[in-house]
Amino acid sequence: MAVTLRQADVFLAVADHGGFSAAADHLGMSQSAVSHTVAALEREVRAPVLQRGPAVAPTAFGEALLPYARAVQAAARALEARVSREHAEAATGTVRLAAAPTAAHRLVPGLLRRWKARLPALDVRLFEGDDAELADWLRTGTVDAAVLIDPERPHPGAVPLARDDFRAVLRRDHPLAAEPSVRLADLADDPLLVSSGGCEPQISALHALAGVPYRPAQRVHTLATLLGMAEAGLGVAVMPSLAHTMLGDGLVMVPLTPRAERVLLLTGPADRPWHPRVEQLCGMVRTDASHPAAHTAPTVPPGGVPSAV
């Protein structure tokens, strides 16, 4: 069998973009060339990898091949970047960075701006997902780097980006909205709104720490829906202070007792060599952290947003 890197790239593009035409636009190829490349791949593996029709999607066999194709693609990107560095070429190519919504909203834009100013030829593309997706994307090679939250075993090269704490999100007319802080137990009678795509494990652990039963009244996926429900008076939420700037005018964030913090780390994968440009980007973050005047970092005033680590 002689599957090529080009075949893997085209297969992933069709799977990720949902069709041959969209993949062709993404790759700068003709649709015919994309179709022929996929057909050549299927001849090599002796089975269909994509279902044709109005909705193009991987077959069961194709789904099984996706992690391997992503790992090959990630390794190839890293190899190309390593060769470029050896020959002192300018930082070019693409780095895929994953982050959860709160980090993507508050931290990542500043990073992208600074990286673009220093490495203008490097394309850093953001992939937004929930906490569980980020670790999986990093493991399978879907992305080259990620902003992970409290990983169990941080990679030695991981760089702390920020530290924040969990706070109550209340309507402005809530009886406790003007308090300097509230006990989690004081919110036990309010319906609890939770996002399953975010920090639910930490919020559950916070309830256990406070001795308060963890009983979500509503569990939604996106933070936008969660905030909309809180603003409509359907309950209260517990969110990291990093999300402070996502609140509408009708909501406030109030510090909680007991206090629980989390740390956000920029890291590459744990089980394979890092893309050299990820190492370079992490090095820039370290330099900025040792010279705070070099960039504008988030700060935590009494109501809300995170501090740089």
Plain-language structure description:
By secondary structure, the protein is α/β, with parallel strands linked by helices. 40% of the residues lie in helices and 22% in strands. The chain folds into 3 domains: 5-67, Arc Repressor Mutant, subunit A (Orthogonal Bundle), CATH 1.10.10.10; 91-161 and 263-308, D-Maltodextrin-Binding Protein, domain 2 (3-Layer(aba) Sandwich), CATH 3.40.190.10; 164-261, Periplasmic binding protein-like II (D-Maltodextrin-Binding Protein, domain 2, 3-Layer(aba) Sandwich), CATH 3.40.190. Helix 8 (200-210) links the parallel strand 8 (192-195) and strand 9 (216-220). Helix 1 crosses helix 4 and helix 2 (20-27) crosses helix 3 (31-45).
Question: How would you summarize this macromolecular structure in one to three sentences?
Answer:
The chain is an alpha/beta fold. It has helices at residues 5-17, 20-27, 31-45, 60-86, 101-106, 108-118, 131-140, 200-210, 223-231, 276-290; strands spanning 50-51, 57-58, 93-99, 122-128, 145-149, 159-171, 182-183, 192-195, 216-220, 236-240, 251-257, 261-267, 307-308. The strands form two sheets. Strands 3, 4, 5, 6, 7, 8, 9, 10, 11, 12 and 13 form an eleven-stranded mixed β-sheet that branches. A two-stranded antiparallel ribbon has the order 1-2.
